[in-house]
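Supplementary material to the annual report.
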Amino acid sequence: MPTPNRQRSGETRNEIFAFVRDRIAAGASPTVREVQREFGFRAVQSAQQHLTALVADGRLIKEAGVARGYRLPNGRLPEGGDGASHIGPVGAVRYIPRLGRVQAGALQEAIEDPDGWLPAAAGNPADELFALTVRGESMRDAGILPGDTVVVRRQDTARDGEIVVALVEGEATVKRLKLSAGRIVLQPENDDFAPIEIAPDTEIRILGRVVEVRRRLV
Amino acid sequence: MPTPNRQRSGETRNEIFAFVRDRIAAGASPTVREVQREFGFRAVQSAQQHLTALVADGRLIKEAGVARGYRLPNGRLPEGGDGASHIGPVGAVRYIPRLGRVQAGALQEAIEDPDGWLPAAAGNPADELFALTVRGESMRDAGILPGDTVVVRRQDTARDGEIVVALVEGEATVKRLKLSAGRIVLQPENDDFAPIEIAPDTEIRILGRVVEVRRRLV
DNA sequence: TTGACAAACAGACATTTGTCTGTTTTAATA
DNA sequence: TATTAAAACAGACAAATGTCTGTTTGTCAA
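Predicted assembly:
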């Protein structure tokens, strides 16, 4: 059998796209010459031509006048408003610091010295986000289990019914916030646990609101 | 008050680190001259010096001979083996395609035409991952609720007790797999639902194993 | 005051990377 | 076969970027 027809199949172009996409996802756009080398082209222009075509097709975006300037266009967002906004523009990622034990007043220090980082879609840069590991079964019926990671948006206040991280007796805890007629209650979602009623003069400190839950299965 | 002491506080260096970190997270490392411009240095070397120092401190990594070659070092992993391995090397991200409705046999097509993309720590490149939105309450007691996104590792087989995505009556469904004495059962985690027993001659197709659950709160 | 040192400045040069012009090869098709 | 268009090649130049040598300035502390 002679050489299979690759000349007009567009297969090489697809492979180049996949290569560039993966390199961008891995941290940085490749250069034209890196594409050239990867595919064994003897001329820079061979790679350049494919890349230009991919940009013309809208499969890639090029930042003009910038080395390693290839970017991925935005991922199409699901139409259904199911709150799946953690799917964002591909390529725009932010890293959320994952904190160890948070104790009284030490939030800022904990944020500056995280255990590690979680990638997430970029979202609103003004939001201060951090992540915590859940301890205990108290939110089981809300689908938040021990070992789960919660992503928290830093804020001092919250509204009735929102799940918050609050500082109770010097330790961070996840509960649902109940506000009614001047009473403040931190409500577990598990009948085995008692609600924590906040006396009017008690100091309660809300660290933020839980915006995402992640669980890694073995 | 005279000019506060910035000369030796290291504050500028911290700001430069934050700038570089955020730029890397946003998609690409800045150049030395971009740092220079951002901080208003009149000499390239001023920025260069800070960057070199950050590399010496281990706060950044530099790929030699590469434009825009600054990278973030790996996030420190939590020592506790709590399975939180979705925290990976910072900067190494992969995008997981999020599929809409998956119907009989159409998995490959669905993967090539995703609804959107989820960022995740890179992990093992050999793993084929995709994501699905959960419908129904059948896995409620396992902490998997309607609207949750499950990340699935593509595989044809699974072990007893693992949560899998299987194709049942032409539609993808999430259940716990129970294998015992030649019987195959897809077990819901909710008493309101009945287990699905797979008759020996029935065609059952396992699409993959659930490796992560994500839930976005309003 | 002076020495030590970090930080910033000045200017240059080397390398990497992007982009251009024009030619040749390959495969499909009239 | 002749035509055509995509794909690949060849060689060059320009712009972006990395890196170097040496000097000056600001702050601390002896």
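Residues 75-89 of chain A have pLDDT under 50 and may be disordered.
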